[in-house]
Structures are given as structure tokens and as C-alpha cells.
Amino acid sequence: MNEMEKIFAESKTIAVVGLSSNPARPSYSVARYLQSQGYKIIPVNPNEKEILGEKCYPDLVSIPQAVDCVDIFRRSEEVTPIVEQAIKIKAKVVWMQEGIINEDAAKKATDAGLTVVMDKCMYKEHCKCKPNL
């Protein structure tokens, strides 16, 4: 099992930071897909109450349950505080979606023992792994 397959096999609960309630947004379609594949999605967006039938939280530290993976849909310069919260809640994986690159935040997460995926789409990677799961 490669690292991507391991992430998908072991990540049951995924907090999606920056999840939009707008079905036209990539965050919505990726989260909806992951939800359809059996993952527990936890929306993180301070401007929403509920997305995809799940209660929305203003930030990671407000989530009352364990989170395996933090999927980030925010601009690269906004990633560091999210990574700091991911470390605080003891998430196992920090995933920065396509186009999101923050080397300093990635190093901070790696140094804290988290697995980091950067500049990759969770939907596309899951589709590549799925035949092997």
C-alpha cells in the first residue's frame, strides 16, 4: 500500500476547511464525492451553519470529535494557522488542495508528525487509488 492508499484507508473523518455551500465550488463537489465514498465530512466555515447535511464549525478547534485528515481549500497564505490548529487537534494528515503550496506550514506539520499532501486534489487522488483499495 502506497502513502496515498494508506491516507485514504486510515482517514475516516475529514474536516474540510473552506467548504462552500455553493454546489459550483470545487470544495463542495470534492466533499460531496468523499461523503459518497463513506467518509465522515466535517465542514469548517465560520459563515455557514450546515453543509451537505453536516453541522458546520467555525474552526478546527471547535470540532468536538477526532479528525483524521484536514483538507484545506484556502489560499496558500492562509494555511499556517490552519496547520497550527490541525497540530493542536492531533489530526494525522494535512491535505492542501491543488494550487495550495505553503512550504513553511508543510514543514511545521511534518515536524509535528503529520503527513502532508500539498498541491493535489483529494478527489483526483482518491480516484487513482480506488481500484487498489
Describe the protein in words.
By secondary structure, the chain is α/β, with parallel strands linked by helices. The protein has one domain: NAD(P)-binding Rossmann-like Domain (Rossmann fold). Helix content is 35%, strand content 19%. The strands form two sheets. It has a five-stranded parallel sheet, with helices on both faces. It starts with a helix and ends with a helix. The mean pLDDT is 95.
- CATH top level is Alpha Beta
CATH superfamily: NAD(P)-binding Rossmann-like Domain
Order of helices and strands: HEHEEEEHEHEH
Rg measurement, Å: 13 Å
- Largest sheet properties: 5 strands, parallel
Record the strand order, biggest sheet.
2-1-5-6-7
Q: Looking at the structure, what is the overall shape? A: globular
**How many H/I helical runs?**
5
Number of domains: 1
Q: What is the terminal-to-terminal distance? A: 9 Å
